[in-house]
Batch of 3 targets.
Target 1
Amino acid sequence: MRIKWTSKASSDLARLHQHLRPVAPEEAARIFQQLVRAPDRLLGYPRIGEKLEAYGPRERWLRRSRAARSAISEVLGRAMNRSSTCTAK
């Protein structure tokens, strides 16, 4: 199998490099090389990025983790309030 860059993709990559080069030439070159080599990984790992139905979308996970953090913060806040009232007596 061979991966072929479209002219639009090549043009976008060149424009990105031209945009970054004046600000950070070494980083622009590094990013350019990483992006050029990235499709080659697909040859060795063709299923990389395949959607697994067993795992829900990231947004659902983020909502759950935000809710968990909120609950933890609330519990810790109450615990801190209790400990400060205990030491104030």
Target 2
Amino acid sequence: MKLTTFNFIIQFGNINKSFRRLSVIYRNKIKKTRLSKGMLQIQLAAKSDINFATVSRLENGWLKPTGEQKKKLARALEVKTNWLFPETKKIMEKKK
């Protein structure tokens, strides 16, 4: 079967849906925190030294943040990394 865009969406669409469900936690907390600080996405991008498009994708759930991005975002938003990304604390506890 030829892999067309339509077939690709049919075959891999469920993967994307489950990933987006996992990333809902990130996008809600990043966006709510940014808005509570009165920041625009472009301001967060500049302050965190993360590309604007990446910040947008993180907020919209299209990307899962790397460890470095988590640290940069938390620093830029003036919150603890473990608060902004609660699963980070669980991962760190498992390593001990």
Target 3
Amino acid sequence: MKRFLIAALALLFSHVVFAQGLPFPGPGLGPFSTSPRSTFITSTSQGACTTCTFTSVNIGTAASDRIVVAGLSARVGGVTEAITSVTIAGVTATAIAQCKDSVTNSTISSLHGALVTAGTTGNIVIVYTVGTVDVDLGVWTLNNTGGVVTPFSTMTNCVNANPMAGTLTSNPGGAAIGMIGTGGAIAFTWSGLVKDFGVNPSNAYSGASLSPTPGASVSVSVSGAGTESALATASW
């Protein structure tokens, strides 16, 4: 009798799902997915700074498992640069992936993340060791990671090729995020990840993401990269 009831309920559930035109839930699919999901929220930039404060940034919908990912890219005009700290809405962020260009170390791109469960806006503060020429910020949220910032995998490219490319190992049905910066006013074209934003004043920065990821790897390529380029990507 118990088996009969379970089978009947399963059949009824499948009829309801398909009657609504929804895909039957599977790994990384459907409205009941528990695979990691990324959402692009916003991007912004500012000029010269050492302690760079972005005020009242949109950080998306509050959730108990929300990871806020800050994609950062900065230029410092030929001087070796490093990031001392990043805070997101008052929470110290963890470095996820980071890359400095291999020519002069003057372009630095990174992904930092923090578990921020409350609020829809917050300050994002980045402290650099040397004052920047300019810095760009992209913001994404991640859900369904169990509140864990640590990625499934990372891939960086700092060799100043055009295109900047690499293979990012991915969690099938999961999420991936990337950030790139370079010297010069360039319009980037992404392949493998979907471009979320791009700015190209005196220097160029761009961010991209993909959710769900289609398989065990994502071939990421960014064309239009100039000299002193740095690409940082991660998957969950």
